[in-house]
Write a structure and sequence with these properties.
Serine Threonine Protein Phosphatase 5, Tetratricopeptide repeat; mainly alpha
Length: 163
């Protein structure tokens, strides 16, 4: 993959966000772009999964996310894949599998996706009837972003798990 290819993919996604392409048309555009990748490249199933997921087809995204991980997707895209796979699993009634995927990510090296991990894990937990645990995660993620009450909200997040 090169910078020009990455730019084309980013432009396709930006167009999707602006509503320039939807559904099958958008997925066809992503398919066309990923066909330029070498065979076996894990970004191929990742991008296709994202396109299915973003157009309301979590069921079709799940096997593609898994394929991307199996093919060795690394770095930032790997973490995105874990988050998005967990979300898709929740959408198809497999929230417990989503929790299993995301829980180790709480201990992973910190990056800009930390809050997304916690938010998605909270949704999975809520689907399993573990709302207090999910709320604790969300409050803990939110607290550092608040202009005030950071310490208080952090303490409340911990207390939810103690009580």
């Amino acid at each position: 993959m090169d910078i020009a290819w990455e730019k084309q993919v980013a432009e396709a996604w930006a167009g999707f966000e602006r509503g320039e392409a939807e559904g099958a048309e958008f997925r066809a555009l992503i398919d066309q772009l990923v066909e330029a990748l070498p065979e076996g490249n894990p970004v191929h199933p990742f991008e296709r999964a994202c396109a299915f997921d973003s157009t309301g087809h979590s069921d079709r995204a799940v096997p593609l996310y898994r394929e991307a991980l199996e093919k060795g997707l690394e770095g930032y895209r790997r973490r995105r894949t874990v988050i998005q796979l967990a979300s898709s699993l929740r959408n198809v009634g497999q929230a417990e599998a989503g929790v299993a995927l995301l829980t180790p990510e709480l201990e992973a090296p910190s990056d800009e996706l930390d809050d997304a991990v916690r938010a998605t894990l909270a949704l999975c937990l809520a689907n399993l009837g573990r709302e207090r645990e999910g709320l604790s995660l969300v409050l803990g993620a939110l607290a550092p972003h608040l202009p005030r009450y950071q310490r208080s909200m952090g303490n409340y997040a911990r207390q939810l798990m103690d009580g």
